[in-house]
Design brief:
The chain is an alpha/beta fold. It is built from 16 helices and 14 strands. The chain has three domains: about 80 residues, Winged helix-like DNA-binding domain superfamily/Winged helix DNA-binding domain (Arc Repressor Mutant, subunit A, Orthogonal Bundle); about 240 residues, Aspartate Aminotransferase, domain 2, CATH 3.40.640.10; about 120 residues, Aspartate Aminotransferase, domain 1, CATH 3.90.1150. The strands form three sheets. It has an eight-stranded mixed sheet with strand order 3-10-9-8-7-4-5-6, sandwiched between helices. Strand 7, helix 11 and strand 8 form a beta-alpha-beta unit. Helix 2 crosses helix 4 and helix 8 runs parallel beside helix 9. It is globular. The structure holds pyridoxal-5'-phosphate (PLP). Pyridoxal-5'-phosphate (PLP) binds next to helix 8.
């Protein structure tokens, strides 16, 4: 708290510029305590220090403190003077700032369905945080900090630390079939920041962007934020399914897709569709944003290479994140861009956000280079596959007759398609009341016309041994709703 500022503001606002200093100080502190500016429990600055700071005699401060103590606003304790616990007067509240002060963009934002700190079954997207090798990460961070020179405390390279860009490029070439060099890799603050960059760098306001429908809310937010025209494209069992009409009448400038594990339905974009998407994008001069958010976890079948590496010079911006393979709070992701775009994007990145956090980046580079990251991935893959198996078995046992599982072959969530007689949002609400958190697929619609009606079940942080019980309870909710809807249909017929 800057007492000199407090004092001069108080003097001006309350029209007592001529008061003696001791009275002004006393009134000012009393006002600050009454209005809650100085909260209960706050320790007042020592009298000698405050006198020096304000340039007044110590007696002036002593007088003010004694007055406050005699009125009960402060209490002495062993180490000085502390603000007493009185309810602050906030009755004369100024008028709140009007909502109209916000842009339409901000006013129209949808509230997130889940709190970011929420946990438990079946929150999608969260890795098992208990399984992260925290002790090892602490050692890597410690080592990185010890090697840092004072000049590295300045802003760092806007595209990311060279060592990390190199390590990411090596990892992507070897494990995802991405064709790239380090100079094409931009380190970001996570996928959201990558998507913002892609949306602003590769399309102008009013340009058309294709989003999968249903699709990832983060991509919708980034594209809306960039002022793009949103066109939702249907998703079927083979992933994003644009029609010939879509290509003719809704020509895109940008196409966002999650080909390895569609978010939220979980379907995998077939090879034929991938090639068609690349061809179509080339023909209309569009760029594809490939969000490969959880593909490191492939549970069945051969690994699927990224779209980016499928064809030479594919017009693809490839986004990845460490939020799923490590932990979301790390806030490190990356985007791999075609080499021709790299210089302009570097300029844009440098002008839109200053990079820092060198130690985190260097520790991550070492995690990748040392092989510990690959080891951690193997462990997580085993753990998540075991949990996926337990979930699929429980779903077959308790819900096999009524719901269909999609997207179980990869990632950290699967989807459960419900019959049309049940509304996924109703089931979600009923399950939430039972303490089971599930997302409704229809809530991920980016536009009207979403044909998916079902639930999204994240299993990464649910122990295998709890799966059967949880699914049995969820099945109870679904069967009850099915019975009730059957009853209402019977009544309608009768
Ligand atoms: C489709 C998709 N992309 C990306 C992300 C990760 O975003 P970030 O790297 O910003 O944590 C998520 C997180 O849930 C996601 O679902």
């Amino acid at each position: 708290m800057d007492y000199a500022l407090l004092l001069s503001t108080f003097g001006k606002d309350h029209g007592h510029p001529g008061w003696p200093r001791q009275r002004l100080l006393h009134e000012c502190l009393r006002h600050a305590i009454r209005t809650g500016t100085l909260a209960a429990g706050t320790r007042l600055v020592a009298t000698r220090a405050l006198a020096a700071e304000l340039g007044v005699a110590r007696n002036t401060v002593l007088y003010a403190y004694e007055q406050l103590a005699s009125e009960g606003f402060v209490v002495p304790d062993r180490r000085g003077t502390v603000v007493a616990d009185i309810a602050p007067e906030r009755s004369r509240k100024p008028a709140p700032v009007p909502q109209a002060g916000l842009s339409r963009r901000a006013q129209n934002l949808r509230h997130l369905a889940n709190r970011p700190d929420a946990g438990g079954a079946f929150i999608p997207g969260l890795p098992d945080l208990q399984a992260f090798p925290l002790a090892l990460w602490r050692r890597l961070l410690d080592r990185a900090w010890r090697g840092i020179a004072p000049q590295q405390l300045n802003y760092s390279d806007a595209a990311g630390e060279p060592a990390l860009r190199e390590a990411i490029a090596d990892h992507l070439r070897a494990s995802r079939g991405v064709v790239c060099e380090a100079r094409q890799v931009f380190v970001t603050d996570g996928s959201q920041s990558s998507l913002d960059l892609c949306a602003r760098a590769c399309a102008d306001e009013g340009d058309t962007v294709w989003l999968e429908n249903p699709g990832y809310g983060g991509a919708l937010a980034a594209c809306r934020g960039a002022g793009l025209k949103i066109e939702g494209i249907d998703v079927d069992e083979e992933g994003m399914a644009p029609t010939a009409q879509d290509w003719q009448r809704r020509k895109p400038k940008l196409i966002y897709t999650t080909p390895s594990h569609q978010y939220p339905a979980g379907t995998v974009l077939s090879l034929a569709r991938r090639m068609a998407l690349i061809d179509g994008a080339r023909r209309c001069g569009a760029l594809i944003v490939e969000d490969d958010y959880d593909s490191e976890f492939r549970h069945d079948g051969p690994p699927l290479a990224a779209m980016q590496g499928l064809a030479p010079y594919a017009p693809v911006l490839y986004c990845g994140t460490f939020s799923k393979t490590m932990f979301p709070g790390l806030r490190i992701g990356y985007v791999v861009v075609p080499p021709e775009l790299a210089p302009q994007l570097a300029t844009m990145r440098a002008q839109s956000s200053m990079m820092g956090r060198v130690a985190d980046q260097l520790a991550l580079a070492e995690f990748l280079r040392s092989g510990q990251y690959a080891l951690h991935l193997r462990r997580m893959r085993r753990l998540y596959r075991e949990r996926r198996d337990a979930l699929v078995l429980a779903l077959q046992t308790h819900l096999g007759s009524i719901a269909t599982v999609h997207g179980a072959s990869a990632g950290m969530h699967l989807s459960l398609q419900l019959p049309d007689t049940l509304r996924d949002t109703d089931i979600r609400a009923a399950a939430m009341a039972e303490g089971i958190v599930v997302n409704a697929l229809s809530m991920q619609a980016v536009q009207d016309g979403c044909r998916w009606n079902g639930l999204m079940l994240g299993y990464a942080q649910v122990p295998a041994e709890r799966m059967d019980d949880l699914v049995r309870r969820l099945a109870g909710v679904i069967h009850l709703a099915a019975y009730a809807s059957g009853g209402s249909r019977r009544r309608q017929k009768a």
